[in-house]
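Exercise (ungraded).
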Amino acid sequence: MGAATLFAQETEHHTQNKEQAEGIVDTKQEVDDYIQHHIKDSHDFSLFSYSNDAGERKHVGFPLPVIIWSSKGLTAFMSSAFHHNDNGEVIVERNGLRFAKIHSKIYELEQGATTVSFDEEHHATNAGKLIDFSITKSVVGILIIGLLMFIWFYALARQYKTKKIPTGFGRVLEPLVLYVRDEIARPNIGDKHYRKFTGYLLTVFFFIWLLNLAGLTPLGFNVTGQLAVTAALAIFTLIIYTASGNKDYWRHMLWMPGVPILVRPVLAIIEIAGAFLIKPFALLVRLFANITAGHIVVMSLIAVMFTLRQDLGVVGSSFISILLSILITLIELLVAFLQAYIFTMLSALFIGMAVAEHDHEHQHDQNGHDVSDAEDVRGDYI
Amino acid sequence: MYNLIGAGLIVIGAGIGLGQIGGKAMEGIARQPEATGKIQTAMIIVAALLEGLAFGALILGKN
């Protein structure tokens, strides 16, 4: 509920500010802008903001370092230099270069320019994008979760050296580790090879799950809802199953037995597209879209408080909004686990397909049917 | 406007598909309760593949 109150304050504030500034309230636009801003990565960690009695805007949060590779090499400064301005109005001068922040992206101004000018579509005309190595909000999230995982699992692993049963928080982690190993890795990869890949599957499972859960806290992380993060995870899986594919995997992909010769090249193209494009794409889009959609739904339901206030009154709209957002947050808790499970499960499945030992007792007849299968089936009836 | 209609169609299709998967899995579990675990796993995988397709279409259709 913390997220709800903070978000409520924020939107309330936005609305009031607009009222004071322009006399017109466009609540829907404000809500939309806020959600769009949240979905994107940002250069500072803003928890909430409010206006004090003097009407000044106060931001609560902390700045993050901006590290950029500009035309004059590496430049670093804190994002507080932009004073929370996101429209390119505040220009920061470092190393003789001028920088502006527009929609959470840092731009470098051309030589001699002192303000950013925009064309009709609100694209900057005299500023270029940079290579950005900044410690953004998502990077902070990844670092925190990585550190937590390292501490927890290092402690858990160390406990097994002295005793058989872990103590403390290890007792929470052990069943989860066993669950991933026995329910995901072993059945999908097979008894012979699963040990080699359990480490990766465990890492990816806990990484995604903990980051999904962090996304539901009021801190405002949306790490697994960033395409770059999910794409990187999918590429790891792609590399692992491509590198560990055995002879049979490649043979069944490129020149599959039991298929008419003329059909083989066509099928090979489909198989190659499946292995290198469709499988990783399915992994990355599913996680990204689920988490992003979840965040949008939660925030939209909280925003019902403002969008329906005129029709239902403060009490009615708040009641509906709180009820719906509690329900959807509970569903999101389930989705956070389910998406981590599905990503791990599909990774295990793909790896299992690549390392599956081809059973050489299964002979193919000239029509491509398994001879021994037919024997098995007949054996059942005798 | 058209992308909204498209999004609606995607959601209808995905809903029918998920209903089929869930319903058949329920039937399977009712017939063979001892296979519940296996059926659930297979159900979740197929549902995930379907969902990936639906989300892909939604994202491509959004722009």
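Further reading is listed at the end of the chapter. For now, observe: The mean pLDDT of chain B is 86. Chain B touches chain A through eleven residues (CB under 8 Å).
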